[in-house]
Amino acid sequence: MLFRNCAGGVVFLENKVLLLKNEKDEWILPKGVIRNKDLSKDIAISRVKEETNIEAEVISSIGETCYEFFSITRQKPVCNEIVWYLMRAFDDDCKLNEALEFKAVGFFELSEAMNMITYSQDKSLVYLSYKKYKDLVLSEIMV
Q1: Using a CB cutoff of 8 Å and minimum separation of 24, what contacts does 127-131 make?
Q2: What is the dihedral of CA 10, 46, 42, 120, to 10 degrees?
Q3: Number of helical H runs and strand E runs in the chain
Q4: Which domains does the chain possess?
Q5: Nearest Cα residue to 86 out of 49, 55, 41, 118
Q6: What is the rounded distance in angstroms from the CA atom of residue 14 to the CA atom of residue 11?
Q7: pLDDT per residue as tens digits for the range 51-60
Q8: Per residue in 59-111, pLDDT tens?
Q9: What is the C-alpha separation between 72 and 83, in angstroms, rounded?
């Protein structure tokens, strides 16, 4: 089995979350493999930018997830361990990166996003992240 360390972002702009539709028609969150001695936080920021053209800042770390799949191109099982970051976008000017084979990108209202997201693990991550986002943004405004 191939083990890969990855990092990704759950990116919010007000009450909307950033989602991508991949080549398999799955609605997912931006993420990428950590290579060399790159920091997971830097990978999360750069993958959000590369995959969606969105400039975002990290607010907080939010945990890790793990999933396994069989890679047809590699002809072996793969285990992705992903470190996730709660992020805030500066604007909603998404641009689809077709070179990475994405089919759609955008910010979606939370209730709509929860119906779109393909994997239950990602749905839970977005739901819990939004609660933390609201708490942190509200506390920031009140200070």
Answers
A1: 128/62, 129/10, 129/12, 129/62, 129/84, 129/86, 130/12, 130/17
A2: 30
A3: 3, 7
A4: 2-142 (3.90.79.10)
A5: 41
A6: 10
A7: 999 999 999 9
A8: 999 999 998 988 888 899 999 999 999 999 999 999 988 899 999 999 999 99
A9: 24
